[in-house]
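PROTEIN DESIGN WORKSHEET
SECTION A - STRUCTURE
LENGTH: 155
TOKENS:
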């Protein structure tokens, strides 16, 4: 993200990002199963029924994020410096490692003396093991591969 957008882990920005995640699920069917908000970027683990819809869904997400974050920063213009990077996860080990990376990544991006203990409050970790409602910014995984990795991560 461009620096002018501000620190993404602030309360109002976290709320705006979570709202964009809810909206993109309803509009495009992009299920964000895990996410982590870092200071200047996001990590997402997503599912989508039609892989051909992924670019459109990501575009819908970036538009919603840009509008919300620009509004909070009182600015107009470009929000994203680069395109998204997609990687298809193929094995249970790869999925477990990716989930662990996303949920623990904040420890690498924040100073050790201010890093919160326990789960990252700016991630999907709060919803692990919870019954998800339509109001949650994350969705329950539908694929066997991600369901099995999520159960292991919650344990």
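SECTION B - SEQUENCE
RESIDUE ASSIGNMENT:
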């Amino acid at each position: 993200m461009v620096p002018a957008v501000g620190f993404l882990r602030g309360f109002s920005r976290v709320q705006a990002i979570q709202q964009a995640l809810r909206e993109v699920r309803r509009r495009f069917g992009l299920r964000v199963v895990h996410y982590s908000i870092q200071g200047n970027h996001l990590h997402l683990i997503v599912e989508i029924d039609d892989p051909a819809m992924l670019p459109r869904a990501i575009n819908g997400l970036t538009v919603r994020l840009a509008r919300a974050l620009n509004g909070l920063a009182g600015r107009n213009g470009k929000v994203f410096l680069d395109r998204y990077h997609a990687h298809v996860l193929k094995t249970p080990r790869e999925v477990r490692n990716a989930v662990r990376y996303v949920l623990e990544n904040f420890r690498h991006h924040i100073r050790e003396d201010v890093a919160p203990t326990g789960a990252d409050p700016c991630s999907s970790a709060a919803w692990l093991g919870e019954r998800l409602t339509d109001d949650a910014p994350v969705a329950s995984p539908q694929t066997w591969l991600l369901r099995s990795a999520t159960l292991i991560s919650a344990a």
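SECTION C - NOTES
Residues 3-154 form one domain.
The first strand starts at residue 31 and ends at 37.
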